[in-house]
Amino acid sequence: MELWLLVVACIINSAAIVLVQLGAMGRIDTQLVLLGAGLSALVFGLHIAMRFVARDADPFLLPIATVLNGLGIAMIYRIDIANGEGGWESASVRQIVWSAIAIVAAIATMLLIRNHRVLFRYTYLSGLIAIVLLLLPLVPGIGREVSGARVWIGVGDFATFQPGEIAKIALAVFFAGYLVRNRDSLSMVGTKFLGMQFPRARDLGPLLVVWALSMAVIVFQRDLGTALLYFGLFLVMLYVATSRLSWVVLGLTLFIGGALVASQTLDYVSNRFANWLDPFSPDRFDQEFGGSYQLVQGLFGLANGGLIGTGWGQGRPDITPVPQSDYIIASLGEELGLAGIFAILALYVLLVARGFRIGFAGQDDFGKLLGVGLAFVIALQVFIVVGGVTRVIPLTGLTTPFLAAGGSSLVANWIIVALLLRLSDTVRNHPRLVIDG
């Protein structure tokens, strides 16, 4: 089944690139089509590797990731055409190169990690790696500030990588291992209030530590979205491990309280809240720095797309600032319409649902928590990005998984897919637990 789904996925991706060229230029340029074909060959290479090392892996994860990655490349290429960019220096070609690196990383992950339980041995090492990766952007000389957020590292004048993307995987491994080891103490009952059993005060340490880490990301790295991603990941994994809703209530109270305090004391956070609450105010729209111009342009782009979109190459997504990364959802919404966005969101829902199914069907507690955590990272990241673009929540600087331009995000998300594939193969090979195909 996976092979035929991959064939369909590659056909969809090739058709998207051709339609972009016909819609925007009126002709077909074979260069990018050939580069896309090379990327498809790598995807089939991952499929072949799985036939040897993970024959029973979930058949839907790889095709879904392939389609999302390909649609993102097509949209970035369309924006390159609008901006008059081309050749090897264009964003679309860089995205193809990063996609190739990411798929190779996924193949390496499948080959090196033959059993996910091996990761359990490196619980605290994973935590240390995550902390080091989070601190790297603050190191003088290699840390870089891009668009107000200090989350990049680079050499010379170029910001090349966002280590926080890899840190989320290391954190998922650490949280899973830590919660398996300490679940009993975290499940101890303290006070009963409003019908819920709240934990003892002495057991609040881990939650407070992760909360403090998230607040530090907001203060020092100026990145509200990443802080929410890390804290939300821990909160959900904690709930799955203990089955106590009180942890979620406490966690949400802490984070919302911290975010509100930040909105009153930190200018860049208060600007995001002000833009969210009143983006069409002339004062906000005309503000040179930190205003709502990007948000409003994205909303106009979505409105211009309507139900079925303008068609590939027929819109004006380039009018919105950074349409190939932060606002690629608005770009796709303009040219593919509401129907296209719903189809893309349905792919994400299916991807996350398969991840949750893999996690909950796991035969060991570590695999269960890891699978749920990795799937939830993708779900929460999509919600944060799409919610910000559509004004459901304040806008943050995260990238849409697989779609948006960004090499570090691609590498991290393809590794997540590889780990979920490894987990699903383990589950399917277990004599008592089987995932429906």
Automatic annotation (TrEMBL):
It is a multi-pass membrane protein. The chain crosses the membrane at residues 32-53, 60-79, 91-112, 119-139, 159-180, 201-218, 224-240, 247-266, 336-357, 369-390, 402-423. One of its GO terms (molecular function) is lipid-linked peptidoglycan transporter activity. The keyword Cytoplasm does not apply. Keywords: Cell shape, Membrane, Transmembrane, Transmembrane helix. GO terms for cellular component: cell division site; plasma membrane. One of its GO terms (biological process) is cell division. It is found in: Membrane. Its main location: membrane. It holds the Pfam family FTSW_RODA_SPOVE. This is FtsW/RodA/SpoVE family cell cycle protein. It comes from Agromyces mariniharenae. The lineage of its organism: Bacteria, Bacillati, Actinomycetota, Actinomycetes, Micrococcales.
